[in-house]
Amino acid sequence: MAVDPCLAVNGDNLEYREFSCLYPQVEHLYTSFEKFYDPIPLLNWMKGQPGIPVAACIIYAVSIYYGQAYFAKRDRWNWRNTLAVWNLFLSVFSFVGMLRTAPHLFHNLTHLSFRDNMCLDPRTTYGSGSTGLWVQLFILSKFPELIDTFFIVIHKKPLIFLHWYHHITVLLYCWHSYVTTSPTGIIFTAMNYTVHATMYGYYFLMALRMKPKWFNPMVITAMQISQMVVGVATTIVSYYYFLTDAECALDRGNNIAAFLMYGSYLFLFCQFFFSRYFSLKSSPVKKKTV
Q1: Which residue windows are transmembrane per the record (predicted)?
Q2: Domain total for the chain?
Q3: pLDDT tens track, the chain, 290 positions
Q4: DSSP E strands: which ranges in the chain?
Q5: Does residue 71 form part of some domain?
């Protein structure tokens, strides 16, 4: 019998197939570090460190409180160029992440049954190898993304509830979802990478005062809302399989948390969308100046 060159075994002795090997036409686009990457050592370490995301969120919340208090009586800083570089970095990172996860998601949706996409252990379907690396990087990226709020505080911009609530809950959920090996993680990862690639790219241009007149920012919020709709639907469908299939590798608590999180995001983003773009309040008429 011929040996499958794409078949490998990860640190948990589970077999998986390296995605870049399955499609030789794009294999040259992957680095040697990505191919057959084993995420298990770091995953197992993360499983034993539940306090890290909690501590990060506490430090984040305290920093917001004291940061805003500090700038309440001081002039704002002007770090627009640094903000532009930061947004460009996140946009490029997210774009690469999208290219590394979305194709694998499409592969799974077309080669696995719907039930398997909702229930199989991700360490065997997408969580190992090159795609596993970028899923892992996605989880870890939720820590540096907290820096977004730093720029809001130092520039004395309004900090809305949706912003900091989103950052805290995403970080906590992503960590928990990863350490409980959520089967549906790649769906959320690919969607978020895609939205962030566009969103941070737009923020990069805004920081440079190069707002593209052809691009309506409403599109970004619509993408975010669509992401939440898919998120809610995924949690409902996966919970159905959890209730009807004893072998479905789904963590009940994680799935309930996902439903509550995506449900709250859906409400808040819809509220933000309509208040910003379809507000019934009429703006005061500005007088012409000569």
Answers
A1: 51-71, 83-102, 133-154, 161-179, 185-205, 225-243, 255-278
A2: 1
A3: 568 999 999 999 999 999 999 999 999 999 999 999 999 999 999 999 999 999 999 999 999 999 999 999 999 999 999 999 999 999 999 999 999 999 999 999 999 999 999 999 999 999 999 999 999 999 999 999 999 999 999 999 999 999 999 999 999 999 999 999 999 999 999 999 999 999 999 999 999 999 888 899 999 999 999 999 999 999 999 999 999 999 999 999 999 999 999 999 999 999 999 998 887 554 444 444 33
A4: 7-9, 15-17
A5: no
Residue 72 lies in a domain: no
Residue 192 lies in a domain: yes
Catalytic residue among 166, 167, 176, 196: 166
Does the CA dihedral 195-235-43-104 come out positive or negative?
negative
Radius of gyration of the chain, Cα coordinates, nearest whole angstrom: 21
The parent domain of residue 203 ranges over 7-24+31-55+81-145+171-275
Cβ–Cβ < 8 Å for 56, 171: yes
Q: What does pTM read for this prediction?
A: 0.93
Task: Determine, yes or no, domain membership for 208.
Answer: yes
Write the single-letter amino acid at 169. Answer: T
Q: Which residues contact 132 (CB under 8 A, 6 or more apart)?
A: 10, 16, 37, 39, 123, 126
- The CA–CA distances, whole Å, from 112 to 36, 107, 126 equal 21, 8, 12
- Residue 104 annotated to the active site: no
Collect all residues with Cβ–Cβ distance below 8 Å to 104 and sequence separation of at least 6: 19, 126, 131, 186, 190
CB atoms within 10 A of CB 42: 15
